Amino acid sequence: MLKLFFILAIGQISVRGSPFELLENYIEGFEKNVDHLRSYLKSGSWQQKTLQNYIQEEAHIKDIGEYDFIIVGGGTTGSVIAARLSEIPEWKILLLEAGESESVASKVPVMHSCLKGESSPLTWGYYSVPQNNSCLNLEDRRCFVPTAKALGGTSAINDMLYTRGTARDYDLWADNNLKGWCSISLEPYFKNIEDAHLDTAMDIGLHHYGGPVHLESSRYYSDITNRFLAGAKEIGLKEIDVNGKNPLGFGCPQLMTKNGERYSAASAYLKSAKDRKNLEIRSLVQVTKLIIGEHTKEAQGVHFFHEGQLFTASASKEVILAAGTINSGKLLLLSGIGPHDELKPLNIECLSDLKVGKNLIHHVVFAGLKYVYVDANHLKTSGYYSKEIDYLRNGRGPLTSTGVDVIGFIKTEFSKGRHLYPDVELLVTSSQIGDNLSNKISEENIHDLKKQITINLILLHPKSRGTLSLHTNNPFDYPLINLNDFSDKEDYDIKTLLSAIRTTQKLLQSQHLQPLGLSYQGIIPRCSEYDVYSDDYWTCAIKQLSISIGEVTSSAPMGEEKEGSFGSSVVDLKLRVHGIDKLRVADDSVIPVSISGHLAAIKMVIGEKCADLIKEEWTK
């Protein structure tokens, strides 16, 4: 369908339109659609209700009836659960999502940067509270925390990278007495969701064909891809399947795309399920509260807003919260599940005194390693001329690129234990034409963009922990997000990134990369008091230029009761909220221990596992 859209567009502008004019026309249309959706959302009172309005309208709630299961959040996990539960025709399923369906523009991989940007209507627009040790170069020291608001969730706006994490990640979960969540138990889920069409290095036995999630290798590689892979080998880092047995080394990205187009969880799961008579999907609704019996401590349904009207829906079997770490945590707190001493001052009755929002894990990103080519011949703009049309016809070329050329996983000296366990991920990215759509694309600035390379360092297993809390009991107010990066007393997190920077510098000095003449462009005025390239300089740079890409987890982590205490856990190993019946949480908020990779894969596996647990319980 997307290719047809482009072909029709070509027909409209005729042969007089160059590829750049075609792309400009496409971007102009995309911007108009974004502006229209943004205006709609801003004008919709569903998102801008005052608490007084909310209280007044509680007396005029419209009841839409009873369902067997209500799923709050149609994101990466919620899409999976809705599709799987609706496979049982006797069950009536309601899926509620605050965002809209994916747009045509979201299918084009190169556009992902604007989809998750600060002004995008496909995100919630969340910011952290002012930070002490990260995002210091940003306005008010507040990190933008990209949080998806769309069917398909994060998988509808992210950079489409698909990484499972390592076997050791999930074995550490099992070590926390979470039976059924070890690597051996989860491997069949990871395999069975895949429809893998990969032409890069593969551990064949770990991949699968025929699952719902279409995976493919990048359809566009810049000149730097092979250079970085060769340079990594030169310093002792193997070329790997990034979802293979060996978790250390460098490899080509594996993407959630199909024929060069984004293939989100909504595409993989909801597209085939949405017409089922027993599945009702409501978008552009905001759930404001979970209905929980004061005496029974049982989830009974939800309240939600849509176009200025307050609705209620009842669940005869279960409510499943799959709104993501930030919004699931927020809804639990608003519904009386959380720390008693924080809820009481907000006049929220505490129904289950749990440590919701006290264990945030943030994959903080150091984005300060930027380089430009001295010899621009290695990055010619001619590739864009010929391959732009190739994308329109065949789904190939630079428009299929997410900008990530190579992924690396490294183990620093601060990664404890003898295991092959990475603690930093490197994303080698060439410039992206989707970063700023307000700038018209021309041959000249394409050339300039293509000369820049950024190496982002992602801290995979931070010691620091953040918090999520409320400052009012108004469901339309944003929560307080404190990422609290680099707050660990031993400075483990800073030291780990410093070590990764040294490894990166060693890589850039390899014989395969030296001919590029890469020149560091990230010198920071606020760090000018330190010698450039010294540890003090890099420590300053890390704090100035660390950002969030929205990979925040663990506001409601899994764990079992020990000696009469739930500790820091919020849900049990079957994802049931401690102390509340008929309520589960199933998304990245339940992750108990950080994983060595991005989150889309494990979120879909959590969805599959949750659906199996529910079927097992309710079909006995």
Automatic annotation (TrEMBL):
Residues 148-171 form the Glucose-methanol-choline oxidoreductase N-terminal domain. It comes from the Eukaryota. Residues 1-17 form the signal peptide. GO terms for molecular function: flavin adenine dinucleotide binding; oxidoreductase activity, acting on CH-OH group of donors. It comes from Dendroctonus ponderosae. Keywords: FAD, Flavoprotein, Signal. PANTHER family: GH23626P-RELATED, GLUCOSE-METHANOL-CHOLINE GMC OXIDOREDUCTASE. Its cofactor is FAD. InterPro entries: FAD/NAD-bd_sf (IPR036188), GMC_OxRdtase (IPR012132), GMC_OxRdtase_N (IPR000172), GMC_OxRtase_C (IPR007867). Belongs to the GMC oxidoreductase family. This is Glucose-methanol-choline oxidoreductase N-terminal domain-containing protein. FAD binds at residues 76-77, 154, 287.
